[in-house]
């Protein structure tokens, strides 16, 4: 065999041995690499990462080259919104866009810096893009989550001037590229000028010049640093931070934001500490309604805009500022649930029963009266009528949605609902029902398992009721009974029930004083709560929007009627009990005996707050819920004031009670727009339920049944027969019965909302007036 053949043989042997080694099991101590480890080596992972980064860079370069700076014209994208009644007829068309462009040289330098301090302290040194915030925003968008991350002034300007507020990956990538190009091609002053001239400041004001006029009545060139800091702070949430109409929370937040802006200016060396310390929050001018929104139109449009903005925030992850910018003057066609005929009837009822009787030239207090009302279909949750004030131009803040006045005794049904839903018991173990007997003594100390809790509320007119059923206590609005019931149920449970029914209880302490309705609430909230009672416990969140469309795009609004938050039996029992308030209680004269009633079944509750600063009637028929509130407001300071003496037509001191003008407005409106119908109730309790037949046995009742049966017969008999058969006979009973239960000779000193000793008791007086002073 030659050498060449030997080499070939050896090579064949090596190859065969190699194949055998690969096919044989690994030697002990040297396990073979798994398929996963062979596929994902560090070299391959590093190569993949490098390749992805390279592709991303090349893609971004391609995108940068492909996307040009578009023609910018923010004003061209402003289009009037159209608002329609539920039947499609025109309600309002929003007016001309309030915008005036000013040169940056017309804006004081330190005012310019307030915007930089508020939004983007690195504005003068950055590249125009916050890459970290943009990446976070892109990730949130891809994952379908909330609001986008932070962005620079340049990015916000690009969004306002070149793009829109859409939360899409495509729009965010365009924003990134255009911002880089704009920052490279334009000066920082040009960008800042564009930003402050295109931003939305609320009050229909676009740009700093319109905002300076809207909030301070001056030109942009005359703005102080304090005023500039307010406008800069305002951009975060324009409507929420508008001081003239802000809630306490809104005022707190905008004040914090204002301080943040000025503190940042000190930190950047743009403001001295001494000057900063001397600065005070600026005085804000009263707002005025936009053209074309006179009367009730502005209130309707305002609520529609708010609810659309809230839906865009929830559905598309917009911030408050972005949502407002996406709705106001953006070409929407919004059809409301407002029924044209019911709206006209509500306005007519307020005028005939109240405002026609007010004359502020004769009585100063007449200028303090602010009426508000919301009417809801409980089956659908549609807001069919709304009254926000006498005129949107004269009173910009809607009385239908304001939450700064106490609902007083209209809160008592919530306490009863909590007791019924939780099958609560009194502290001696008796179930709380419509027939449960409580001690209705005046100023009776509330106890928690025998221990006083430091709360002893007076009853209206210091009336003592001794033993009284829950039904009678609701009829007469006995404070001492519901204060004790609240503690029996547990105030945490009461406030939890209030929240589930639709009341905003955030920040409200769960204390016994809340049983008297000492929190703030709006007619809109109370209408929703009572609509949930009327809808047998199904949660009703009143909505004013029927549909919202924009250039072929529509927004899906949430269903106003949700799931069960209260059992049907509990809800229906509350309704049954509330019929007694109308037929044999504080609303008897104004509602039960109203000649327009014609046998219509009604449930409702009156409310009169401490010092007569608010008065309510929230009531319902089977097909319509309406909450009417009257509020005493100083027209200059907007402080809460007493309504006593308004109209000059009431006896004595002229106290306005929930059973007076609010109930009269309710009746004049409701009985004119509803058809006679009856409640379909699944309950064995309350005034709407016929009393049981008398026992056939001649044996006397046992002592345990006497207290619960005897008192419950009086309230249950009258409502079940009188309203449906002989409504005209009701008034004759009122004067003779009520005074005997509400003595006029009791002391009245120290209680500013009570009548003088020379004044006869008001048969419609709400026994639930709030007198607790924390």
Number of strands: 18
Form type: globular
Which strand order does the major sheet show? 2-1-5-13-14
Cα distance spanning the termini: 117 Å
Radius of gyration: 34 Å
Q: What is the mean predicted local confidence, pLDDT?
A: 83
Low-confidence stretches: 696-765, 767-774
Largest beta-sheet characterization: 5 strands, mixed
**How many helical stretches?**
25
> Helical content, roughly?
40-55%
Strand content: 5-15%
Structural class: alpha+beta
Pfam families: Transgly, Transpeptidase
Organism: Streptomyces eurythermus
Keywords: Carboxypeptidase, Glycosyltransferase, Hydrolase, Membrane, Multifunctional enzyme, Protease, Transferase, Transmembrane, Transmembrane helix
Protein name: Transglycosylase domain-containing protein
Can you describe what's shown?
- The protein is of the alpha+beta class and 774 residues long.
- It has 25 helices and 18 strands.
- It has a five-stranded mixed sheet, with helices on one face. Strands 7-6-18-17-16 form a five-stranded antiparallel sheet, with helices on both faces.
- Strand 13 (545-550) and strand 14 form a beta hairpin.
- Helix 5 runs antiparallel to helix 7 (169-185), helix 13 (297-316) crosses helix 14 and helix 15 packs antiparallel against helix 23.
- The chain is globular and about 125 Å long.
- The termini are far apart.
- Mean pLDDT is 83; it is low at 696-765 and 767-774.
- InterPro entries: Beta-lactam/transpept-like, Glyco_trans_51, Glycosyltr_51/Transpeptidase, Lysozyme-like_dom_sf, PBP_transglycosylase, PCN-bd_Tpept.
- Residues 756-767 have a biased composition (Acidic residues).
- Keywords: Carboxypeptidase, Glycosyltransferase, Hydrolase, Membrane, Multifunctional enzyme, Protease, Transferase, Transmembrane, Transmembrane helix.
- Residues 441-451 have a biased composition (Basic and acidic residues).
- Residues 690-704 have a biased composition (Pro residues).
